[in-house]
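TL;DR need structure tokens for one chain.
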Amino acid sequence: MTPAKIIRRYWWIAGLLVLAGLGALAWERSGYGWQDAVDALAGFDPAVAIALMALLPVAGFSISVVYLVAGAKFGPVLGGVVVTGVTAVHLLASYWIAHTVLRDRIERYLEKRRHRLPHVPEGENISVAVMAVLVPGLPYVVRNYLLALTDVPFRVYFWVCLPLYVARSYVTILLGDLGTAPDARTLAVLATVYAVKLSICAYLLWRIRRRLKQRRKTAPIDGSATERRVSP
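>> reply
TL;DR here they are.
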């Protein structure tokens, strides 16, 4: 099934995502802050709030607002359950969209320019998935789509990212809105979490580079040994 046929068949999903994306963009440009978004989402009926929390981040809405709403509206325990459920929806939707609508078009675009989608080194799927979740700076929606567009298997994509995202969410759920005059203790916690994430990413990147160097060093030896065995 071609991407065009998929879009025609699931036009309502594409429409919802477009509307959600436009709504998220309009909200961000309206001048309202995080707390305004939290108050707006928290004011909805719980079922409506959960539906919006599941849909909006797939189109680029701030995941931090979702975490804050989960903590403010449902509390730390039930909020964690809600975050687990909506995160599962985010991952499933992002992976499905990436592999049905985006991947073929992106691959054709890159092939015309003699480029390819990034290839994950053999045996490093889990490490790459962990780095995609923990590396600072990337927006949530970009992390999910970029990782889904690689050749990381779905089981790794889903079962590695889901618990890590839920664990990350508790920093926001428990600390609340971090933009309102955080105290020294809050800043210390954030700095510690940030340092831990950077350390894990740095270690995984170092390990991947080391393994790639080892493979490059052993490849000529293996190749020469094979040539000696097959030569008369």
